[in-house]
Amino acid sequence: MDACWYKQGHALLQQISQTDFGESVVSLWYIGQMGVIVKWRGMVLCIDPVLGAMPGADGRDRRSYPAPFPARALKADLIFCPHAHAGHMHPETLAGLAQANPGLTIVVPRPLVEKAGGFGIPANQLRGARQGQKLSLGKEIAVTPVATAHENYEFDAEGNSRTLGYVIELGGHRLFHSGDTVVTEQLRDDLRAFCGFDAAMLPINGRDLARNLRGIVGNMNSREACWLAEQIGADLVIPLHYDMIPGNGENPLVFADCIRHYAPGRKYHIFQLGERYLLG
Hints:
Layout: H1 9-18, E1 26-32, E2 35-40, E3 43-47, E4 78-80, H2 91-100, E5 105-109, H3 113-117, E6 126-129, E7 135-136, E8 141-147, E9 164-170, E10 173-177, H4 185-192, E11 197-203, H5 209-213, H6 222-232, E12 234-240, H7 252-262, E13 267-268, E14 276-279
Helix pairs in contact: 6-7
């Protein structure tokens, strides 16, 4: 599937910088794969950014489209990474962001703090997260990590999940970004405890044996994402993880059709790359 940027480079960075609607509106931008930039009350949060090449075994970049801008060009306050795969905890991206933003906090699952430090990120910029333990991050920003299964649950010897989704509370707004995961009863029940979400950002690329045999770990599919959104009371559903890596994507119109069949009336939004969405 061909993909191109609606807005990128200086134009996108300028829009992020100049956007400020105060407390009443959360601004979202899609930057590819599972990557989302969130801005609220002047704070810039970036979830799952991949702002560099994704080389394959032959050394060639596997991306279907280029990064919107270099990592060092983004002014950010908080970064969230869900797990260790390079498409979600990208060394070039995290090192560039950390260098350009000395006050930045990078949140990773607790078992991955040492790995992230190996990218050259100073220890004072890293914060390890454990499922169920809320993080207070200033300006009425609170984040609760939730254990996820990609495709299975994985814990270290201390019981810390190696893969996390993040419930992000911005004043009176509540968002959920799942990172990569399949749907489980435990995930559904953990999220139901929050009594609804303004938006849920979920992968839709699915999983199958053919991809497993190629070493690709999968996610929920479109129908499962629709079901989960219904179960957790998500007002808006945003499908992700369908367009960056050839052979591991999905047509987002399949998701739209699943909404029509399995969650009629549920609000959803399919982003263009670099598009802004205002959540009020």
